[in-house]
Amino acid sequence: TLGGYADFMAKEIAEQPEAIERLLAGRLDERGIKLDELSMSEEDLAAIDRVYLIACGTSYHVSLIARTLVQTWAKVPVICEYASEFNYEQDVLVTPHTLCVIITQSGETADTLTAARRMRGMGCKVFAITNVLGSSAARESDGVLYVQAGPEVCVASTKAYTAQMVAGALFALRLAQAQGQMEPDEVERHYRDLCSLPDLIREVIARSWQDKRAAAVFRRAHSALFLGRGVNSTTAYEGALKLKEISYLHAEAYPAGEMKHGPIALLEPGFPVVAIVPADAVHDKTVSNIQEVIARGAVCVAVATDGDEDVASLVEHVLWIPPVADELLVPIVAVVHLQVLARYVARMRGCDVDKPRNLAKSVTVE
Ligand code: M6R
């Protein structure tokens, strides 16, 4: 039931902090990160030399974040694939020690299941990250991690997205540990950083009025451009996907540095641009992109870190996030503003946020 919320999307956005707390509870002991769900021996984990991350839609965006975490923390090369593309690729680069991880909220996405079967057919171990108990993905995999986000009713994924990213982070830490790439105190520090996320998300939700105010920018828009760099290019992809799914506004996302290679031609006075520009190593580069956008009369809404006066003085609206200890985890906090923003834009445009046209909660045809 809605329990006082206007729609399931609002309820599920609000449930994110608790979902992540549930997933993280009891995951650290004296031996490090506990992820018995992997059902793999320490030797097998240590031997993994390649990881395939396969998913669709929002879950594919999770794979992009997980790739960065696995490569940075565990130093294992990762290949991300859209399941629907992977299934028709001729050459699959599996080694005897490749692990395949499928990410699927529903556990019933046909393309993702086909990809998992293909990988298993090639002798690859398959690990599933899913939200649905006893789903096909869970039943057909060698190991399964339930993200425990609770039922997600709204077609647009919110709490499963953030919980799946945290699951990806746990997997990356577990692998880093088994591969001898991380000292115990480092593992513990990363785990603590993950544990700080629920409160940061609560803080962003408490700032929803900022998204409500910024939604006005999209009132007469026909299209919008989302920009971000590094891990937050993924935040841009996810923000654009949320907006188009529920508000039917065309939205396109680009890594900020790619804008000048084409999309900049779209810009004209009044064109809405959403820039994700947290305090991180690539901040100043993204600020220059914002300057280019503004010089062409576009209206910019920025997701920025508290206290960033440089960004505040440039843009029309700022969606503020509190400081996040590890910049690789910013996507898990920043995206919450984009979920809330998409919801306000959709409501303003009279759309049914929970049941957008043409979409189903799980896509069971290939
Ligand atoms: O259940 P899955 O995670 O496998 O679903 C994959 C996509 O269909 C899904 O994420 C879709 O993109 C969402 N509606 C996005 O909000």
TrEMBL record:
Residues 41-181, 214-356 form the SIS domain. Homodimer. Its main location: cytoplasm. One of its GO terms (biological process) is fructose 6-phosphate metabolic process. This is Glutamine--fructose-6-phosphate aminotransferase [isomerizing]. The keyword Transferase applies. It catalyses: D-fructose 6-phosphate + L-glutamine = D-glucosamine 6-phosphate + L-glutamate. It comes from Thermophilibacter immobilis. Its EC number is 2.6.1.16. It is found in: Cytoplasm. The active site is at 361 (for fru-6p isomerization activity). The chain holds residues 251 to 616 of 616 of the full protein. GO terms for molecular function: carbohydrate derivative binding; glutamine-fructose-6-phosphate transaminase (isomerizing) activity. Catalyzes the first step in hexosamine metabolism, converting fructose-6P into glucosamine-6P using glutamine as a nitrogen source. GO terms for cellular component: cytosol. Keywords: Aminotransferase, Cytoplasm, Glutamine amidotransferase, Repeat, Transferase.
